[in-house]
Each structure stands twice: as C-alpha cells, then as structure tokens.
Amino acid sequence: MADRVFHKSILRNEDPQILVGKAQYLDDIELPGMLYAAFKRSDYAHARLKSIDTSEAKALPGVIGVYTAEDFGDLVKPGPLQVPPPTAIKGATYASRTIMPIVKDKVRYSGEPVAVVIAESRYIAEDACDYIYPDFEPLDAAIDLEKALEPGAPLVHEDLPSNEAAHVIQERGNYAEAAAKADVIIKRKIYMDRVAAVALENRGIVVNWDDKAQMMTIWCGTQSPITLRNATATRMGLFENQVRVITPFTGGGFGPKINTSMPDDVLLTELAVRLNRPIKWYEDRRENFLATTSERDQVHYAEIALTKAGEILGFKDVFYHNSGAYDSYMMTVPLNTQTHTVSNYRIPSFYTEIIMVFTNEMVVTPVRGAGRPQGVFVMERMIDAAARELKMDVAEIRRINLIQPDAYPVSTGIIGQDFVEGVLDSGDYPTALNKVMEMIDYKNFREVIQPKARAEGRHLGIGICTFTEGTGVGPYEGAKITIGGNGKVSVATGVASQGQAHYTTFAQIAAEQLGVEVKDVKVTTGDTAAFAWGAGTFASRGATVAGTAIHLAAVKVKDKALALASKALETPVSELELVGGFVQVADMPQKKISLGDLASKANPMRGTFPPGAEPGLEAVAYYGPPYGATGAGCMAMILDVDAETMKPKIERLVMVHDVGTPINPMVVEGQVHGGIQMGIGNAFYEKIHYDETGQLLTASFMDYLFPQATDMPPKIEMGHIENPSPLNPLGIKGVGEAGAIPTPAVFNQALEDALYDTGVEIMESNLSPSKVFTYVQKAKGG
Amino acid sequence: MKLEGEHVFNGPRGDVWEMFYDPAILASAVPGMDKLDVVAENEYEGVMNVRIGPVSGKFQGKLTLTDVVEPESLTLTVDGRGAPGYGKGVGKATFIQNPDGTTTLKYDGDMNIGGALASVGQRMIDSVAKSMIRSAFETLDKALEARLEAKKTGEEVNFTPPTTTEFAGSVAKDMVGGFTKVPELRLILYILPVVAILVILALVLSK
Amino acid sequence: MTQLVKINVTVNGVPYEREVEPRLLLSDFIRHDLQLTGTHVGCEHGLCGACTIILDGQSIRSCIMFAVMADGSKIETVESLGTQDHLHPVQEAFMEKHALQCGFCTPGFLMTIVDYLGDNKNPTDEEIREAIDGNFCRCTGYENIVEAVKLAAKKMAAHS
Fold first, then answer.
1. Chain C: closest CA distance from residue A252 (Å)
2. Distance of alpha carbon A527 from alpha carbon A268, whole angstroms
3. Residue C27 at interface with chain A, using a CB cutoff of 8 Å
4. Could you tell me if the ipTM is greater than 0.85?
5. Alpha carbon distance A428, B175 (integer Å)
6. How does DSSP assign A415-461, residue by residue?
7. How far is B112 from chain A (nearest CA, A)?
8. Which of these, A368, B37, B169, C131, is most buried using a 10 Å CB contact count?
9. Where is the domain boundary, A623, A653, A670?
C-alpha cells in the first residue's frame, strides 16, 4: 500500500506561528517578579583564586545579591558525568574530572565563572560584574596537546599525575603485519581545530520555584530536558515530578545545548529557591563564544599501508584529542572519530589510539559531526596522499577499496560511542560514488573543463570524498499517543526540538497510521510533564529512535481503535480501515464512527470496564536499537581559487546521500543544506582560536567568520539513494549531521587540485586565505 | 607577544634620565593616566583609563623594578588588571649614550593580554598601541626640548602636554590615515608595558 | 538614579509614549517594553542581522541603536507583515520553500527581504545573495531562502 503522508514533502506544521513572530523562545519569557542573572567570569585561563571582593557590586542599586563559591557550600563540587566512561573497551584508562558549577580555588579555563550577580535588570546585573574584584595568581597554561603531556607541563588537575584524561587503543586485524606486506606506506600529521556551534540563539535559562506547590519549573532550550530534570531533582532532593523542564522554541542547538548540570542550571535553581523569585539568564554572543563548549581540536599521526595497485591493507591512526579543562562528556567525540575513520572502505587491519588530553581551554563536547568529520578528514586526506604517491585518480583509488553492497551487515570490530561494536547495517557505497561522479560529470570535468580552465590560467579543482554517518544510536526513546475527544491526535515524546521539523515529521508518522491529516496531529516535544522517559536530541537520532517509538505507539493506538470500532460497528477488524478521522467499513464507507466518538466510548463514565482493558485510545511505546543505523554518501565539489588572493569560490557542490527512508524529503534536504554550511565554515572560515596563554581570540563575529549567503555554492545539488535500515520498521536513518561530515575533506582535495601547479599539500583544516598562501609559498620553496 | 623597539632622544643621557624623573611629564604623555603611587621601593601602583574600540574601563596597574643598573638599564614588570581584561609584561630597558650627544632608549620584552581586550579588542590594539607610543614619544621629545631650552636660558620649563582631545585626535587621525611610520618599532607593541616603562623610568630616575 | 527620557514611537501603526533609560537598546525596547518578541537578538554586536526591523522605511539593526534615538520614528517589525491565517507573500514563500528551520533568524530575514523587494522587483540569484549577506543563518545554508525570495518576488508581482 502506498504511503499517504509518510515519505512526502509535507509543509511544516510549525511554520505559520514562527513566521508571524508568535513562537516563544527563551528570552521571550517574562514572569512576574522575575530577576536577572549575570556571571562574572575569569579572564585568566589558569590561575588560583586567592580571594574575591564583591562588596562594591553588592552595594549597587538594583543588585539583589552577589554570590561566590563560599555562598554555595556543598553545591560546589564536580557535576555528574554526562556520558558513561568507556569501561566497555578493553584496556581503556580514563580520569573523570567533571565540570564545576563555579570556581572555588582554581580557574581552569578562560570564562570559568567566579561569581553570579542577581539584579532587577540584566543591564544592572552586567554592570555589577565590573565591580567584582577577584584576586588571581596566574599560572602557566597547558594549551598545546603534545606539550601538555610533557613532564613538567602545568597540570590542569593537580591531583592527577599528568594531563592525560584517557587512553584507548582499539585494533582489528594486525596493522604491523599488514604494513610488512605493503608496497607503500605513507605517513602524515593531520589536524583540525575547534569550531563552535554558533546557534543563532544564545543560551539561557529561566527558573521558577513555586514554594507553595513545592514545584521547580525550568525553561531552557536544552537538547536533553529529561536529563536536566532528573539531575536537578537528584541534586535538590526532590521527586522527579516536582521538577518540570519545558523547552520553548529553540533557535538551534547543534550540540552544546545537550549539556546539563552547567553553572547556570546548578546555581540558579539554588538561588531561585533562596530568593523565592523567578530568575532569568541569557547570554550575548561574546559570552557564548567564551563559555559554550566547542569541538574538533585533534592532532593525528596517521599511516596508510597499500599495495602498489592502490589496495589498502591497513591503516594506523594515533591521535591526541583535546578535552578542554574537564571531561564531563567523556569519550563520545574521539570514539566517533575512531569509528568513522575507516567506515566506507574494506580495510582488514585498523589500529587506532586515542590520547585524550586536559588543557586550559573551554570544555569540548559535540558540535554537529561530533568527531566524525575528523575521522573522515584523516582517512580521505591519507587516501589523497596515497593517490598522489601512486599517481592514481582520486575517485578510482576510492572505488577499488569500497565495501561492496553484498557485504552487509559489516562488523567493524571497533566499539563506538554507544559502547557496542559498530555494525554497518546497510548501504551501497559504489552506487553513491557512481552517482556523484555522474552528477558532477567527473569525466567531462577532467577531460574537457579542467584542461581548458588551466590553459586559461584559472585554478579550478575538483574534490570527491566518501563518508559514513553513524546515526540513530540508543539507548532508547519513547512516545505517548492519545486520540482526543475532538478526533485529533496528540503525540508526546521526550526528545527536544531545535528546528528539525519534529512537529511535522513526527506528525507524519502518526498520521500515516491513524488516517488523519498531518495538521491534525499536535506534537509535544521537550516537556517533561507531557513525557519524561528518554535520552535527548543528539547524534542524529531524533527521527530514527523517537520516530520509531512514535510509529510503534501509533500502531498500538490504531489496533485499539480498530478493536473498539469492530464492537461498535459489529464488523470484524479485517474489514475496517482508518480514513479521514473515521474508522469505516472498507467496502461500505458510510458505515463508520469518528475517532472522537471512539475516544469517548473508550473512557466510560459509568458501568463496567472489561478486565485487562486500558481506557482511552492511548498507547505508549519505547524503542531502542541494537546499534546505530549508518547513513552514508559522497560529496563532490568544484572549486575555483584565485592564485593571488587565495580566495575560493565553490562553483558546484554535489551531495549524494543515503538516509534510508526519508520521512519528509524536503526536511532531509534542509538538514543537509545546513550541515553543508557548517562544513564549509569548518573548511575555510571558522576557527575557535586560543592563544598560548589560553585566551580566546575569536569571541565575536568580527573574528569568528561565519559563512554567509555569498560564501555558499550557487546551488547545492542533491542526489538521493534509499537503502532502508533493517534496524527499524520504517527503515529510517538519521541525517542531521551529514552535511558537516565530508565537507572539510572534499574542500582540501579540491583546493590541492586547483593549486596543482604549486604541488601544495595541506593536511590541516580551518583554513583561511593567509594560511593557504603560507602553504603555497612553502611548497614553491619560498 | 614580543615587544621591542628603540627611540632616539635628542639630548644627553643625563637629561633624558632627568626628564624621565618627572612623573608628571611622563604621566601626561599618556592621557588616561589617573594616578601613580609609590607603594614600596621600586614598586608603584597606578590607575589608567583604557579605551580600545568597543572595550573600555579602568586598569589597576602594579609596576615593579628589578635589576636596576643606574643609569644604564633595568627590568620592569607590569601587571595591569581591570574590567576590560588584563595585561602582563616583562621588559628590559637600556639607555645608551651616543657619541653625537643623543640618547638611544632600547626596549625588549614580552606581553600577554587577556579578557575582553584579547577577545574583542585585539585587532585594534596593534594600531592604537603603535599610535599611542608614537604620540607618547613625540610628547616626550617636545618635553625634552623644552627642558634643554630652559636649562640654556635658565628660565622655567615651558612645556604644555597635549590635551586629551588633541591626543585622541592624533590617534584617530593615525587610525584613519593608515599607520606606516615608526620604522624603529618592530613586531607587536602594547600600550601598557610601554607606557609603564616610561612612567616607571620617570619615577626611578626622579630618585 | 538615571534620568528617564520620554520617547514617542509608532510601531506597526500603533503610537506609543514611553519613558526609557537612555542606554536602553531599541531591540530590548521592542521586545520587553512593547512585548513584541518576534524580533530576535542573536549577537548584540550588530553583526548577525537577527534583530533587523524597518525604521522610517529602511531596514536597520535594532541591537546597536538606542531606543531614545528612535524618538519620532515609524517602526515596522515582523508582527506587521501578516497573521497565521493571512500570511504576507514573503512569509508564504518561506513556508512553501522550507526556508526556515529553527526560525530564530527568520524575522530578521523577512524584514530585510521585504525592504529589499520593495525596491528590487526581479532580482537574480546573485543579487539576492548579496542582499541577504548581512543576515546569518545556521540551519538552512541559505539555499531555500534564496528560492523563497525568488518565489516571493513572483507572488508580489502577481498581487500588484
């Protein structure tokens, strides 16, 4: 039976409200008697806090209070881990040092809060910060990843013997043997630096303690409302249902908004109880750059072993991963890097080693891609180095090494961020490569377009890369579906939304089963009073995991409706169907009953109730995959580079992508477009830069460059492949991070191809015109 | 950040030292300098108003002198902290008497800045610093000239330091007009340590 | 205590008289004093364009302007464009082309575009990209926004 609303580009339910300016975001919330918070943050990256003078700030008119560590007593202790440690990986060693809510004796990153001001207005609160005088004894900072591990390096955590935060080695096959058999071994140092999520909406929180009801309400654009609720309840000694977390419309998440037990929620919930007034905190962009987590800083020493025909026998990657000052998010990011380094290719021997390092920089937690872009970057750059050495075509060397479509499921032998061995569930990589080459007209470019351009003195290059994207990981999500007396459907799930069309895609899944219009399905996400079991929105898992739970719940509700209608219409279930908000007899549609009437019937006011029955047309379902579903694709780019100014112009960009079954193709494309903007930023414009003393030099859009409309290609061309995932009934794979993953690798390849006459090889990302210029000068021998 | 450069004063070393001994002259060469107090021998504290682009505020400065070899050289450490951030620098200053009667002041040191100054104001610090240093030396040149004149004629020193407005105007002109002068200045220069060098020398030499 | 200043502004056709601190940002005045929260603040440095409104016929950034500077002005915010039942052609085009995801930057884009299409009835792709270059978007990659502007131009031409 053909899908009615599933797998269709349905326009979004949430758009009209947003377009007319009636969607409520965090800073739009005003409560009577609300106070405002501001944080005084350390300028120094590494220092001892000897004392702090808040008397002048306290005396400012309009200031309610100024609080430091000594005002918070026991609350000042390391927070809970956000992610469990890697005990599932044999031989893994780690040191857990989680985020502190406020500085007590020692500052470990520039921006760590030393005091919080509560005032009648945000303006006054921020003013008061200038009148707080902390007395710091500055210390040398540990910044460079390798230097931080040298003996005598300043220790971020003085109770540890070194700045090593974790050490994990994983291997499949035997790299040493593979290298011994190889004709060619290529070694390179490859690195990528931090990028920030830069959601257009900065972070914030509103907390309200109702002393009469003994109820804490928190509004926050968080990616994990349930974790926030549970952590708050545990910390404050409350029942979980005494804490309600509501996520308003959220202006983008992209990773950092997943963190909970951060200074703001820990300190402000405490102060809300003490002051018995609602409190709001909202950042400006500088504070966002300074005090929000970012990600990507890794240094890789990679080695690839091949036959002279270009077949990869083995791959070795030893890399340093920057955890920042704390490691609350444990090893999610570097484990993603490990699992995504060799995904598309048949490589019998793979050795990968993570050395995670503490530094005096902001904490690292996932940013769209979450370690996957680095893995893909390393592999694709090494293959390009091999292609150069063996004088092979970059597409051809990839083709001969791809995993073939008959190999699935493929066990990778490498444990990933969900602590199970990664298994590639389905895919067809050769078809994706062929398709992208066809779409970008690779042959014609190499044989006609490029030679002509070169003859004209233009520097036009092409890049082609493959990638996989691990998505839809566990543990689980759940959903509750209820048919109301109005005949419309209500869906509630625990994941939160930051713009990825959940209000529509989730509605489509439910509507498909229940025979209603998509606009008649009301979706509630991220409100713990509506649904309180689940993990959160991360790792491209919302549609896959919550979507599947919604589907399962919808099927249960459908069965209940059919069973009840069967009694009401005195017709066997097999002859009934759900159409247009009714249950009707298939070949006698005038004999029908509305869903609204059925819902009322299902909840009798008097009389008896059959044993074992459940009231209402409502069901709850949970879904947890055995492992994540793997999306994959290929990206190709044609890049024109001005050989004097090093300014790039993307002439064409083609993305071929496999998301399994797309719930809403229009939404899927939108997700890829957004990821590509971040990927382009990662490749050429964006870089979170800390200087050697740990000072953040890129704390505004003046210095942190953000790709604008004119920095994008004239058209993002997309090709779709559908290899449904066998892991869930709808065949869905995640897509949120896809665009961000391959772009830096493709960009560098295209750049090197464009500047072919210089022989330049660039093994780092986060480039800029001056950086490329320096590389070119070096390559030319200057 | 490296900080080094030199400036040739049109006068004998003794007079240059003497002039530097007058803290009022030096403080006036840098508008925004509020006050300077002697805390202990070779230790001074002062307050300075700083404005660099969007970043402005008061700085509390601690200045310490070490390795003083009168009248040749000294090392000074500057530690300035305030709402806009902090600056910490260590520099060595050397005074060389030239055979032609002029004096060369050479300075060489390291500077770290942090906070909002670094994260938002860093692009402007270079040009503003260069400009302020150039103007400061210009003022000191004029002050030295006036002092030498007065010595010759025996009259009172006839020197008026530039007003804050005039000074700001000249800085603004530099920023608009593009800054291409001062070939002696190399690499990166920051306001605090250079200013502090000048101010401290004044105090040191006024002993 | 800071001296409050009386200002008179007309916002979306409605006249307001208020007393404000001289340092109150126009964006905060619109959002918190007038409760028109459709205009959003993304950076407070005048760089991202999310706070774009139309003041005396020109699109400007409200986060780097003080409310007192708007005394005597006519202001239009996103709330003036349309209602959920009756969207403005630009809003319709945005919905039909999936040109918004989280929606935070959207009001700023809408005001920039409404101002732009007023003077440029039939822009090319390149012209559109230059016109919206001052508005940042992290979700859409601008791809569908450009399509939406082209569609909006067609719709507005058909209406007139």
1. 6
2. 20
3. no
4. yes
5. 59
6. E-TTSSEEEE----HHHHHHHHHHHTTHHHIIIIIHHHHHHTT-EEE
7. 8
8. A368
9. A623
Domain count, chain C: 2
The per-residue pLDDT for range A683-697, each reduced to its tens digit, is 999 999 999 999 999
Identify from A54, A695, A697, A702 which residue to disrupt to test chain B contact, counting B C-beta atoms within 10 A and taking the largest count.
Answer: A695
Residue A1 pLDDT greater than 70, yes or no: no
B134/A45 Cα distance (integer angstroms)? 32
Contacts of B184 (CB under 8 A, 6+ apart): B5, B6, B7
Contact of C151 with chain A, judged by CB distance below 8 Å, is answered with no
B83: closest chain A residue by CA: A130
Kindly list the partner chains of chain B, i.e. chains with 3 or more CB atom pairs below 8 Å.
A
Chains with 3+ CB–CB pairs under 8 A to C are: A
Which residues 693-722 in chain A show a CB within 8 A of chain C? 700-702, 706, 708-710, 712, 714-716
User: Measured between CB atoms, does C12 come within 8 Å of chain A?
Assistant: no
Check residue B159 and give its pLDDT: 63
pLDDT at residue B176 is higher than 70: no
- Range with lowest mean pLDDT among A101-105, A250-254, A729-733: A729-733
Cβ of C102 within 8 Å of Cβ of A714? The answer is no
pLDDT tier for residue B155 given thresholds of 50, 70 and 90? low
The helix (run of H) or strand (run of E) holding residue A332 is helix A332-341
List, in sequence order, every residue forming a beta bridge with A480; answer none if it has no partner: A492, A620
Minimum distance, in Å, between the CA of residue B14 and any CA atom of chain A: 38
Give the pLDDT score at B150.
83
CA distance C18 to chain A (A): 18
**Interface residues of chain B, partner chain A, Cβ below 8 Å:** 57, 81, 83, 85-86, 88, 112-116, 118-120, 122-123
Q: A702: distance to nearest CA of chain B, Å? A: 8
pLDDT for position B182 = 40
Contact A695 B123 (CB under 8 A): no
Is a pLDDT exceeding 60 seen at residue B178? no
Asked if C132 and C113 count as a contact pair (C-beta separation under 8 A), the reply is: yes
B177 pLDDT exceeds 60?
no
Rounded Cα distance between A129 and B206, Å, is 38
**Boundary residue ending a domain (A597, A623, A649):** A623
> What is the interface size between A and B, counted as CB pairs within 8 Å?
46
Same domain, C103 and C154: yes
Q: Note whether A454 and A495 are same-domain residues.
A: no
What's A529's domain CATH number?
3.30.365.10
A45 neighbourhood in chain B, CB within 8 Å? 114
Q: Is the pLDDT of residue B175 over 70?
A: no
Number of domains in chain A: 2
pLDDT of residue A628: 87
What pLDDT, on a 0 to 100 scale, did the predictor assign at position C18?
97
Of C77, C102, C134, the CB nearest to A251: C102
CATH number at B79 reads 3.30.530.20
Rounded to whole angstroms, what are the CA distances from A393 to A309, A400, A401, A732, A755? 12, 11, 13, 34, 16
User: Do residues C140 and C100 make contact, with C-beta atoms less than 8 angstroms apart?
Assistant: yes
Instruction: Report, as an integer, the average pLDDT of C13-20.
Output: 97
Contact C138 A198 (CB under 8 A): yes
Question: A689 touching B, CB under 8 A?
Answer: no
Q: How far apart are CA A378 and CA A340, in angstroms?
A: 10
| Residue-range definition of the domain harbouring residue A436 | 334-353+372-472+627-780
Q: Is A289 close to B119, i.e. CB distance below 8 A?
A: yes
A698-736 pLDDT, tens per residue?
A: 999 999 999 999 999 999 999 999 889 999 999 999 988
Q: pLDDT tens for residues A178-212?
A: 999 999 999 999 999 999 999 999 999 999 999 99
Q: Quick check: A127 contacting B, CB < 8 Å?
A: no
SS3 C110: helix
